[in-house]
Amino acid sequence: MPAQALSRERNFYNVSVDGSVSYRFTDGINGFVRYADAFRSGGFNGEVFNNPYDEETVEQWELGVKTEWLDQRLRLNASWYTYEGTDLLVSVIKVVNNTATSGLVNAGEASRWGMDLEILAVPIDDLTLGLGWSYISGDFDKFPPTCTGATPPVCLNTNNLAKRTAPDNQVSANMDYTFARTDFGDFDLYLQYNYQDESGTASITTGLVSANVNVPGSPQVPYEYAKQVLPSRNLVNARLSWTNIPVGNESLRLTLWGRNLLDEDFNVYGINFAALGLYTEQYIDPLTFGIEAAYEF
């Protein structure tokens, strides 16, 4: 028989709305306004006893434009958006009975806004260039405090401490170029570049610590641990392909690919286990390359 047992049941339901209005100013310019709300069901954390969480709701507005120029050789899309989130679900690490466990909690309210820009160009036949940029701003307006179990409880106000994990800026650029077409196949080069600002692994990491480690039995107080930061990074990937190689009535494709060509070394994920004193990180794979062959029949 388990040490603790409990049976609980909750029902969640929602009717979401997603609508937009668009207007074509010219054959190559189209503007739009979009409103949507979204819902994410609540539930129960399986690893922490008797620890449910409520549903998450988000309302979003988006204003954008989609354009094409120069006989459809240049495409420019841009949008601005904002959203208000209530009871946002965020993953946290908790220490329960000296055991680290992950769980979902409702993070109160958040206001965010951002912009997206996309450029796609075909300056010459067989060459496509792409550029993208996105920006996001805003943080949590309300975030649940960390409190002790004492009476009355001692609480840490986390409204101004919790931060979003997404980076401010992200940039991507790519080139897809078929530089030769022959009777024995086509030769393609694809280059991809990605950049993003520093970001976080968790909105906040808190716990309870002794108010005075030198005094046995000293009461516990809430404490915020240092945020774990993922640094800004540059990433370059490439692919060189020999395609449409005739093999009888079928075709063969050979590809030489490389990832992380700059051989960057940065952490892409991490967990701060707070009171357990553990701090883990996962790093990007080093410069990696390989060859692929595909036969189409």
Notes on the protein architecture:
The chain is mainly β and 297 residues long. The chain has 2 domains: 17-113 and 139-144, no CATH class; 155-297, no CATH class. The protein is 0% helix and 62% strand. The chain is built from no helices and 24 strands. It has strands at 18-26, 29-40, 43-44, 52-53, 56-69, 74-86, 89-96, 99-106, 109-121, 127-137, 140-142, 146-147, 155-156, 169-182, 185-196, 199-200, 206-210, 220-224, 229-230, 233-247, 250-259, 267-272, 279-283, 288-296. Strand 22 (267-272) and strand 23 form a beta hairpin. It starts with 17 loop residues before the first strand and ends with a strand.
Oligomer: single chain
**Regions with pLDDT < 50 over 5+ consecutive residues?**
none
DSSP helix fraction: under 10%
Amount of beta strand: over 45%
Q: What's the tally of helices?
A: 0
Shape: globular
Chain-wise SSE layout:
Elements: E1 18-26, E2 29-40, E3 43-44, E4 52-53, E5 56-69, E6 74-86, E7 89-96, E8 99-106, E9 109-121, E10 127-137, E11 140-142, E12 146-147, E13 155-156, E14 169-182, E15 185-196, E16 199-200, E17 206-210, E18 220-224, E19 229-230, E20 233-247, E21 250-259, E22 267-272, E23 279-283, E24 288-296
Antiparallel strand pairs: 1-2, 2-5, 3-4, 5-6, 6-9, 7-8, 9-10, 9-11, 10-14, 12-13, 14-15, 15-20, 16-19, 17-18, 20-21, 21-24, 22-23
